[in-house]
Amino acid sequence: MNNMKKITPIIAAMCILPSCDSYLDIVPDNIATIDYAFRDRTGAEMYLATCYSFMPPIGNPAYDPGLMGGDDTWSLIDVWSNPKTGSYNCYNIKINQNANSPYVNYWEGQNQGTALFKGIRDCNIFLENINKVPPDLSEAEKKQWIAEVKFLKAYYHYYLLRAYGPIPLIKENKPVDAGISDSRLYRDKFDDCVDYIVQLIDEAVPDLPPVILDVSEMRRITQPIALSIKAELLVTAASPLFNNNPDLAGMVDNRGINLFESNLSSKDKWERAKTACKNAIDTALSTGQIGLYDFSQSQYYPSYSSISDSSKLVMTLRTVVTDKWNREIIWGTLNNYTIATMPYFLASHNTVNAWEPVIAPTMRMVELFYSNNGVPINEDPSYDFVNRFKFEPASADQQYYMLADGFYKIAKINMNREPRFYANLGFDGGYWLGNGRQLDFNQTPADQTAWVTRMLKGNASGNSTGLRYSITGYLIKKGSHIATQVNSAGTAPTTAQATFPIMRLADLYLLYAEALNEYLDAPTQEVYDYVDLIRTRAGLEGVVNSWAKYSTVDDKPASKTGMRDIIRQERMIELAFEGKRFWDVRRWLIAETEMNKPIRGWNIMGETPEDYYNVVTLSPLGFSKKEYLWPIRQEELLKNGNLLQNPGW
CA dihedral in degrees (77, 322, 581, 513; nearest 10)? Predict the structure, then answer.
């Protein structure tokens, strides 16, 4: 691995990705340069970097549909194109997606979508030519590079499969002299797509390193990464969207082939998924380098070591996604999410143009988090659910989460919630550590104690300029790195580079709990144990005890359907604002329920608590069945009559 440190800068430099000129583009158009590219180790390494360069920019609001394409966030849309969110193509997925010019078109690489079929083509070129490299490339290194590219090829197929359903499998590039008819490919059967992706990953795993310790290579592929994505793929394939979904049963192409015909039973698919999840977990833990994160492991911990245990827990749950290459992140990337989520704390801050907090949580996410008893707020009889939108001064037992001076009025919905609520969400009257503040409210000196986000109209963290503010009255605290800092107007922010998890251990634990629960007739202790690993870290009691003691539905964990609901809510809480909900509500086949609820927030034009604390509807939102699968651009269908459009488009 010592000879390969230079590849990371090469990958990082490729921020402008190539686009695909025509459908699939499976015949290489640069034959004359291929031999030159593989004439030596350096050229081959550069081509390896090219294969990496097609990675979807996960964690970037402009390109990752998971961040702005769902019902968990809403955004202030200005008349100009916001540089932090691009041209709002990801945002527009949930508003007016279309088949003439689809937003975030990953099929072709248009409208802020990455050209993944072109990426697959380049992976094929690499695999077909790597053996031409002279002996200055060692056999061990060559095997690892081949394994990495096989995984990338698998991942690009998987990303397309998750979005579009069955896709043409590009196992190899067509010869240069291939006829037009040979290039008019069909979509392969869904199960065949899954099997081929699994095959590629299985071929890659033995030659991948178990772990990478060199920080400069952290985005390189490892065995835990490959096996985790295999697990996620198989859970996705077993989920209701793709597993015996009657709405997709009629996808028959002009050959008469049903693209969703399957020889596997639902139970078989879940067995395959749970086995893959457990294998990924065991492999990750066996490295000795991967485990659940704690803030005490952070390089920033010494600066915050004097804060309360309550605040330390919140910091664990908040920084698990941003603390660079922490031990819980199995696979991550670098991102600029912070500057689109962190609020202004002083009036002078809002003149710093590079910092624009325009991506905001919706009220449904506020209601999603548990009560401080670790159960849904509408199931906890001790939680005043009916009056949750009322407001009053916070009591002393809330003092580490919000301003509790006996005077400042705060919404009751923000009180008595679980620690993950305070790790994920900023709200009017709430405390916010970071941006130079590293002490609790009651410590000294006062100018280093936690910020208070005051969000009524005219206040710094609210709508004070009419330009950049939260449209819902809530902030994504989890997405903001604690070391990012702005001190005064006209001063460029010191933006700490944060990681963004593509896969972290908590995600994998919950995938396993889900797959195991779906495979079994009734949940076992092992199902509870893997969920409880996450809950314990979050400062909550275990599932069975929490529901028995605090919920009106005390037997919910005992049944398969009850535990299914618990696991799903646990995923939506633990992985909030990490781009997972967008895909989860689709694979669970509940998007038509979740995304047909109105988008709500506070009345951010209110200058007093009486005006501000009124729930308003920002948009009715709407989701139809056809939106479970993304549309293929209509022009592509005209070029290739063998392609079948997704239902409804």
Answer: -170
Residue 519: pLDDT over 60: yes
Q: Give the tokens for residue 124.
A: 């094929």
Confidence at 466, pLDDT banded by 50, 70, 90: confident
Q: Identify residue 83 by its one-letter amino acid code.
A: P
| 3 to 39, 40, 165, 457, 641: CA distances (angstroms) | 18, 14, 39, 56, 47
Whether the Cβ atoms of residue 426 and residue 476 lie closer than 8 Å to each other: yes
Omega before 445 within 30 of 0, i.e. cis: yes
DSSP for 34-66, please give it.
Answer: HHHHTSSHHHHHHHHHHHHTTS--TT-TTT-HH
In sequence order, the β-bridge partners of residue 602 are 615
d(C-alpha 403, C-alpha 44), whole Å: 58
CA–CA distance, 430 with 451 (Å, rounded to integer)? 8
Q: For residue 420, give every residue at least 6 positions away whose Cβ sits within 8 Å of its Cβ, in sequence order, or none.
A: 317, 369, 370, 538, 573, 574, 576
Please provide the distance, in angstroms rounded to a whole number, between the alpha carbons at the two ends of the chain.
Answer: 47
Note the pLDDT tens digit of each residue in 164-188: 999 999 999 987 656 556 678 999 9
**How far, in Å, CA of 481 to CA of 483, rounded?**
6
> Residue 351's closest CA among 195, 504, 521, 487?
487
Is residue 68 classed as helix, strand or coil in its secondary structure? Answer: helix
Name the 3-class secondary structure at 589.
Answer: coil
Sorted by sequence, the CB contacts under 8 Å of residue 610 that are 6+ apart come out as: none
- 595 backbone dihedrals φ, ψ, rounded to 5°: -95, 15
Helix (H, G, I), strand (E, B) or coil at 568: helix
Q: Which residue's structure tokens are 């709430």?
A: 430
Query: What pLDDT, on a 0 to 100 scale, did the predictor assign at position 356?
Result: 79
Q: Which residue has the tokens 């059967």?
A: 189
CB 340 within 8 A of CB 358: yes
Of 643, 584, 595, nearest in space to 623 by CA: 595
Strands 359-361 and 599-602: unpaired
- Burial degree of 4 (CB within 10 A; 0-12, 13-18, 19+): middle
Beta bridge partners of 449: 439
> What tokens were used for 536?
């314990």
Residue 111, token pair as written in the block: 């409208």
